[in-house]
Amino acid sequence: MNLVFVRPEEVDTVWAEVAPEFGRVVEKAIHGEFTTEDLYRLARDGRITVGVAREKGEVVMVVAFEFVFYPSATAVNVLAMAGRRLAAFMHRFLPLFRGFCKKAGADWIECQVSPAMERMHRRYGFATVYRSLRMNVKEESC
Length: 142
Prior knowledge:
alpha+beta, Aminopeptidase, 5-stranded mixed sheet, 5 strands, N-acetyltransferase domain-containing protein
């Protein structure tokens, strides 16, 4: 399995292969934050980075991430990750990705995940820091 980060000018060459994977994430785990088309546009514009892991030429995992600049820290926020070989991907690439993020000046890697993904990510060294809450301001409540 190899992982390649796609440059903005290369997004069009891989999008047909990675869009279905991101589409599954958007359908199952995203709650209105972005669409597959948003990921495409953001990647093409260089605002996020897309990583593609292939095995024997076939896409097995995709990841989309962005740098977030807080006043006193820099984070790498993983927006979406999908595929069929998650455990193998994490074992093989998380140490390398962590090193990449550190070298790029990040203080941590962060992500918003479901409770099931939270349990899985804990196996790889992630820790719960905050609980994410929402209040819909478009609908009447209270």
